[in-house]
Input
Amino acid sequence: MDTRQRLWYSRGVGAKSTVHTHLRTLWSWLQPGLGVKRWIALLVVGIFLTALGISIGASALSGDTPIADATSLPAGVMVGLFLLAGVVTSLLALFRLNRSLLSPYVTPGRPVVEVVARHRRLGKGPKIVAIGGGTGLSTLLRGLKAHTGNLTAIVTMADDGGSSGRLRRSLGLPPPGDLRSCLAALSDDEDLLTQLFQYRFLEGEELKGHAFGNLFIAALSGVTGSFDRGLFEAGRVLAIRGRVLPSTLADISLAADKTPTRESRTIRIQGESQIPDVPGRIRRVYLEPSDPPAYPEAIHALLNADMIVVGPGSLYTSVIPNLLVPDIADAVRSSRAFRVYVCNVATQKGETDNYDCGAHWDALTQHAGAGLVDVVVANDCLDTALPDGVSLVAPPIEGFKDVPLYATDLVDHDNPWRHQPDELADRLISLLEERTGPLEWPSVEQVGQVSELN
Output
């Protein structure tokens, strides 16, 4: 058998296999217990009655009405009865058939139409990519998921502490901690899954301190054969609204040059978890190795986004490490999306002590370069009390010379060191919707303070 004959043979076998698979799938719909056959049969009856009514009507128009002649009813009445019966029967069958098919995916107490309408609405939402890690990124995602289902979270892979660090050292996996938090934030059943995924074992020599979600991702990575595939399957299991992607799958670590308090010398600190523990001011952070390859899907998401949101989150250990992956920063800079930097609401001990919004922006541009975003979004509500050592981040009075500033009340007054998720998401979506070419700013009276210096 020559090459051409083998090709024809393989195509023939493949076609037969495909047909066999389709027939077997169709036959499986007829198995008992699905609650489908009766409604399919009723739908066939409804279609038959409708067709019969149309046929009688056509016969009446042509003057040939054998069925009407055999009864005492006028042809018009019979047409109306058959059409009514057919339409009602078909609609009932379709309604019950859809209910049977969708029942496994519908939350009790929520109508099917509501679930379908929300799914369609979110599916048409803007493509938004959020870059960061930790609590800040999950807070942002929790608000944005009410506006769109086309969300992508790009998460730092430099974490080396706690449960993530232990799994990283023992199994050689990328750290799953920040990924876990984002998966929980994007889940439809967030109340239960957040508690489950964030639960840490309190007992057991080996399990104590581990987060269940980290073990779940690690187990799926083993089952699927790769970390990124395990992460994808975790998202499917949790029915998340969007995607969670690592910035890189390379084995990276974070280092920082830091000047300790009351000292002039600068020391190098190795390890993301160690950086906040040393008092002093961070001069610069580095990835080791310095040029890890970006995760390809993350680059694709950035280049095809409608909006890119950088932050909020720990400035030096969650936000900047993503942008130290060279291809990530280049993709953000090259993207045609509307790009926003969301400044943190409060300072963080050991990282941004006494920083205002300007210091946050200077640190970001020092590490990632200029031209990264189109606007900076900051909180301007500064009358909320915070724990000792933590202060609210004030926006600059005169704005920035190189990028517009949008400032408004974004603080969560129940947790004043964090953004209010819904308020932050509403403001970002409003800015995106108002952007038609050049950014059209809302008035100061409507939403807060907007300043721009040329």
Remarks:
- The chain has 17 helices and eleven strands.
- Residues 36-105 form one domain.
